[in-house]
Design a protein that fits this description.
This protein is an alpha+beta fold. Helix content is 32%, strand content 25%.
Length: 271
């Protein structure tokens, strides 16, 4: 009888454990833990249909609006931050500008409506089924063409923690000199969002595309007009290249490309 009661108590305790627990830290490392599933009782959870960039089809999730969850965790101060770092259970980190969260609808999803297990049947980059608990950040890719065009950018799953930060803190090896121009600073933000997934500077960044600053900066051996055209429309320079151009939906796109080049110039090692 005693053993039965202990088992029953253990099972009850398990059921009471948070199912979608996420830690939210600010820049001073003050941390708040919220169960997104519990938050759904405070802020009305929504059944939201998105074009799922890994399954390549419409999928409906249950989730809480991201802005409401962030307000619960941080109050208004998250809105004045530059970047939010989203860390998965395995440590994989995705960085999303706060401006994106303010301009586009997103949800912290904690369940699917079409099945009981919280997983993705991924089609890309390879076919596999992956668990995505405790939380999956999803975006309004059905009605928002700009979000749809960016594919899986900013869709972290197995989300375990969120941190407010700055571009310089999130990308310390890529930050431009403090005495740099405002154009270079703008280019830095654009580079980290659109370029650093593939390209590196001095070894910091992605490994898919070529290194851009070691031993020589790309602006030292590419003529400015050709570099601008390469970022604008790579296929016009090299047929069959895998490099994508600056996304068409980027505001003031030509100015943005010039800012990326100004950033690259600011990062040169000099003579």
């Amino acid at each position: 009888m005693k053993r039965t009661l202990l088992i029953a108590a253990f099972l009850a305790a398990c059921k009471s454990q948070p199912t979608a627990l996420v830690a939210f830290a600010d820049r001073a490392n003050n941390t708040t833990k919220l169960d997104v599933a519990v938050e759904s009782g405070k802020v009305h959870a929504e059944a939201v249909t998105v074009y799922e960039p890994y399954e390549l089809r419409d999928v409906t999730f249950r989730g809480v609006p991201a802005q409401a969850v962030l307000d619960s965790a941080y109050g208004e101060k998250w809105r004045k931050s530059e970047v939010i770092s989203l860390v998965a259970l395995d440590g994989y980190t995705t960085t999303v500008p706060v401006s994106r969260l303010l301009a586009h609808k997103a949800w912290f999803a904690f369940a699917r409506t079409d099945r009981t297990d919280f997983v993705l049947d991924k089609k890309v980059p390879k076919a596999e089924t992956v668990a995505i608990a405790p939380v999956y950040l999803v975006w309004d890719s059905v009605h928002d063409a700009a979000i749809r065009a960016e594919g899986d950018y900013g869709w972290p799953y197995q989300l375990a923690s969120v941190r407010l930060t700055t571009f310089a803190q999130a990308f310390p090896g890529l930050a431009p000199p403090e005495h740099g121009t405002s154009e270079a600073a703008e280019g830095f933000a654009l580079f980290t969002r659109y370029c650093a997934t593939c390209h590196s500077l001095d070894g910091h960044g992605g490994k898919v595309g070529p290194e851009l600053n070691a031993p020589h900066n790309v602006t030292e051996y590419w003529q400015p007009q050709w570099l601008h055209q390469w970022i604008d429309n790579p296929q016009s320079i090299r047929k069959g290249t895998a490099m994508p151009g600056m996304p068409a939906q980027v505001p003031q796109r030509q100015k943005a490309i010039a800012a990326v080049i100004a950033y690259l110039q600011a990062m040169t090692h000099g003579p």
